């Protein structure tokens, strides 16, 4: 598709379910919405947002969640001594989905048509292409070439809700409304720009670290019907994300959108 399609409004899209650029297997296709992180936008973000030079790690510890759901294996680290302990190698067994990570375009498929059992990934990529280890189509190596760097905008819902007296557990279907996101943005004098990376803090880390004991964590990991607080999964939110021009969305929630979806 014409690269300019990424700058169109939702209502201008020929088919909102099929929006990608570049040839199948190309770097452009593999970037997805990250194509909005143009050199001009990244340079502007650096020039206007870097003030103190303080660096902040947005990733959680690799061993979190130490009790993971969906039968995901927790991180394991093995130390291997070399030369009788003169040096050491570390060997990690890690499921990236268990801790902080970006969901890649290969992570989840969608039905080809409503009600269809046939499913494809971004760009029409098939399961066969995903399983072909020689096929790098829409892999995260496209993102890793230059990294994901731009202007991050934080919507600190957890702090806002605490001030409002709104009580919830992040391991529930508590839902962040679009209207609440916009209210927080207004209160914090945030004006969204195309290419922004939207960060929503809901408070999972604080609850996991300070409010849940080991039995509670184990019970969460064992449940077959987990619940995760998050942003409402509605068409209004989807259209807003697209029209605002976010290059990516992220947060501290187990799933960015509320899970299971509240219909």
Describe the fold and architecture.
The chain is α/β, with parallel strands linked by helices. Helices cover 26% and strands 14% of the residues. The chain has helices at residues 27-31, 39-49, 127-131, 141-144, 157-164, 178-187, 204-210, 214-222, 235-244; strands spanning 76-82, 87-93, 110-111, 119-120, 152-156, 175-176, 197-201, 230-231, 248-251. The strands form 4 sheets. It has a 3-stranded parallel sheet. It has a two-stranded antiparallel ribbon with strand order 1-2. The longest helix is centred in the N-terminal third of the chain and has 11 residues, at 39-49.
Q: What is the count of DSSP helices, taking H or I runs of 4+ residues? A: 9
- Can you give the helix content as a percent range? 25-40%
> How far do the termini sit from each other?
33 Å
Number of strands: 9
**Sheet with the most strands, sense and barrel status:** 3 strands, parallel
Strand line-up in the sheet with most strands = 5-7-9
Query: What's the overall average pLDDT, rounded?
Result: 94
SSE pattern: HHEEEEHHEHEHEHHEHE
Q: Assign an overall shape.
A: globular
Rg over alpha carbons: 20 Å
Tell me the structural class: alpha/beta
Q: What is the beta-strand fraction?
A: 5-15%
- Poorly predicted runs of 5 or more residues: none
GO molecular function: arylformamidase activity
Family: Belongs to the Cyclase 1 superfamily.
Protein name: Cyclase
